[in-house]
Amino acid sequence: MVDLQGQYQEIKDEVLTNINEVLDTGAFINGPLVRQFTENLNNYLSSERVIPCANGTDALQIAMMALNLEPGDEVIVPAFTYVATAEVIALLGLTPVMVDVDPDTFNITPEIFKKAITSKTKVVVPVHLYGQCAEMEEIMNIAKRHGITVIEDNAQAIGADYFHKSGMVKKSGTIGHIGCTSFYPSKNLGAYGDGGAICTNDAKLGEKLAKIANHGQSERYYHDIIGCNSRLDSLQAAVLLPKLKKLDDYARARIAVADYYDDAFRDIAELKTPTRAPFSSHVFHQYTLRVLNGKRDELKVYLDSKGIPNMIYYPVPLYKQKAFQHDVPSDMHLPVTEMLCEQVISLPIHTEMQEDQLEYITREILAFFK
Hints:
Layout: H1 4-25, H2 32-45, E1 49-53, H3 56-65, E2 74-78, H4 83-91, E3 95-99, H5 110-116, E4 121-124, H6 136-146, E5 149-153, E6 161-163, E7 169-171, E8 178-182, E9 196-200, H7 203-213, E10 217-219, E11 222-223, H8 234-245, H9 247-265, E12 271-272, E13 287-291, H10 296-305, H11 335-343, E14 344-347, H12 355-368
Helix pairs in contact: 1-8, 2-8, 3-4, 9-12
């Protein structure tokens, strides 16, 4: 699904130079390279504060820990997403309110969000699934009217642009009160291990987030609040520094692959290619098709037989996972989420794809639908 080795060849010299600097200095935790990466990412996002952390799941947990939430407070989250988004809600004793998503963008919509609000709603977590933003401008308007905090799950969409009606453009993850991202190796901005970051435009909130990520301390051995131990190590920053410089180039390469797939599958009635919303660019963390003829699983078997990598993100709605059986109603039914779990399939999309690979993949898929 990704070619990390091929991508490495382009940045190999800088990565090795940076890693050797870490090894030579012994600055493995919160070293100069972590500080440099944090500054560079902050400049790239044009945000008030970036706090690096150990992984994307920690980023979400730290964000919620900073909001003075109490057990039973409700957090609205899409049911069609990776488990981490809802996992931290349950972990903190909060109540996940799982909602449906739009069948075209795969994201929560303002209308879905609005209908789910109750007197206990404290937070909403729009997930920018597969690389494209949810409709954040109206989500923020609704949240403001109801006093709800917005935490963007930006793990799959870092680098995407959001276009406001006024003409203002903001990077994904910087529109809500807090943005969380992941540097898992397969992400668009991926480390060579785990890593994550939190960003905010609220300076006071940024201070609290930074404290929580570092054992609740701003000064060593003086702990103001209960926190956790979640740090981006210097070896991961050594990898992320050169990758951040190329993030927009990586996005353009992914978009070119998506364009190729779109053109190839345009006339196949049984396939629905990804929708590109007018309010957001799409950086294609995944290229996800919907198979409309009930043959998704058959297509997967066929692709496997042809040596074509493919994945189903995600096969089971969150509310049907055993882990959440005590957090959601037993008769819960979200029709779009369940439909997508039966239809979606993702194809390889990464920065190193060659035309012969694309020709082979598309030719075999076209043959399947003849």
